[in-house]
Amino acid sequence: MTTTPAILAERVRHTFADVVALDGLDLEVDAGTVFGLLGPNGAGKTTLVRVLATLLRPTAGRARVLGHDVVAEPLAVRRRIGLAGQFAAVDEELTGRENVEMVGRLYRLSRAEARARAGALLDRFGLADAADRRVSTYSGGMRRRLDLGATLVGRPPVILLDEPTTGLDPRTRRELWGAVDELRRGGTTVLLTTQYLEEADRLAQRIAVLDHGRIVAHGTAAQLKATVGNEVLAVRVADTEGVHDAAAALADLSSRDEPFVDPASGEIRLAVADSSASAEAVRRLDARRVPVAAVELQQPSLDDVFLTLTGRRAEDEPAAENDEREAA
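RE: above sequence
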């Protein structure tokens, strides 16, 4: 017996003029899970979310949400999803309560039911005391929590969260993480796009790495980390001007590709087969009279996975125009 995926994308392509935002993307998300879509700005994350939300029509390929085609059955898809983007989509002239009730009415809830659900959600997200204040008086974190509450008022079985914690302080970010965990425990499917490695590691049962509009790797966090190797050697040189020479001296210690070099911080990172590589690294740099600020062996992180797959960090801004701006 097979189970219909909550989200299914097959060879989805989307272009903005001559910019390819999605390039034959395939994705499958199981129901009742949090699926993390990890990638830097410009990777295509927001474009995919907009395709799944029926806000953009794919140039080629097809996508389904709970078995409903996003092009052929857009209304059926919209009735089954909630969407929270990078910026809170709330009306500043209304109160917090009025915002959530309004969305409830758009979901065709009765006035009484919309009010009851709004009250419960405002309390759940710590906004009960501010419920009857105009949203123009809310902080950025409060607006983001209100936006998520409004997304949930219709109790959609699939939630699309597009970088929901971007720009939030650590406390508010943790509060939203708790809300996402609670959604999953209640059986809701969540597609979470993020460029924060810790966020994907903390929340998602499965993760896909998106780069230049394609999925370049997917699996659990543990499976992705295993692709890097047993350990990662992190070396930081005291003089950043010598970082490239130092990296060249250590290059053949890597068990995979060339070391990653961050010229600004003087950091060199490379996957190694065993712990003896740290002593050898120190010996080589000492022989070349390269002053070392720190040497550390670490377990692979999702950041190391991304470095290995793409040659840059997930938080880095690419040189090319990103698709989020193109779609704005």
